[in-house]
Amino acid sequence: MEDIFVGIILLILGVVAIIGKLAHKPRYIHHWFIVLATVFTAYYAFGELTVFETGEINQNPLYLSVGILFLALIISRFVGENKKIIGFIGIAFPLLYLMLGDTTYAFGGGGFTGADLLKTGVLGAIVPIAFVLVFSLLKRFGFVAGDNESTLKLSIETGFLFFFLFGVSIAGFFLAGPFGLFVAMVTFLASSIVAGNVVEEGRDTAVPFGLSMLLLLPLTVISEVGEADNLSVLQGKMFAGLFLGAMLTVFHAAILSWSENVSGWKSKLLLLKAMVLPILFVALGGMLYFMYESFGGTSTVIAMLIASALVIPILHLVFRNRSFAVATMLIGSAILIVPYLKHETEELSTEIEGLDTTTQKLVVVGEDGAEKELNMLDLSEAKGDWVVNPENSNLNFTLEASGSKTKGKFKSYEGTFSVPEDWQNAEMNITIPVSSISTFNAIRDESLLSDAAFFEAEKHPVITFNVKGVEFSKEEYLAKGEFTMKKVKKTIDVTFQFIGKGERDGKSFIVLKGSGSLNRTDFGMTPDPGIGDVVNFEFQTEFLAK
Question: Where is the domain boundary, 156, 187, 216?
Answer without folding.
Answer: 216
